[in-house]
Amino acid sequence: QVQLVESGGGLVQPGGSLRLSCAASGSIFSINAMGWYRQAPGKQRELVAAITSGGSTNYADSVKGRFTISRDNAKNTVYLQMNSLKPEDTAVYYCNADIRLRLWDSTQPYWGQGTQVTVSS
To answer: Alpha-carbon distance 1 to 46, whole Å?
Structure first.
């Protein structure tokens, strides 16, 4: 079974930093894009950042200049460094990975369980 396990969430004051990690495990042939989504109470899920297997990145306008996504392909792990956090960043953050289980398969999305990030004084 493929699993994405997230860690690093918690409570932080405005202006603080957190680093989220998400490690994929199981029988995996390859992982294409990986990303982070978030969902705040009463709001729709939104893409925060994404990164391709080659390292190209994309960010939501609201986090540009503050968040950095990276990955370690050898460890099947994606990270989200979150700096200058704002109260509006408060949400459950979900890791996503487009995973190919076998060479002859197309990729399918897998999701982590979510980790709570709360930015409050």
So the answer is: 26
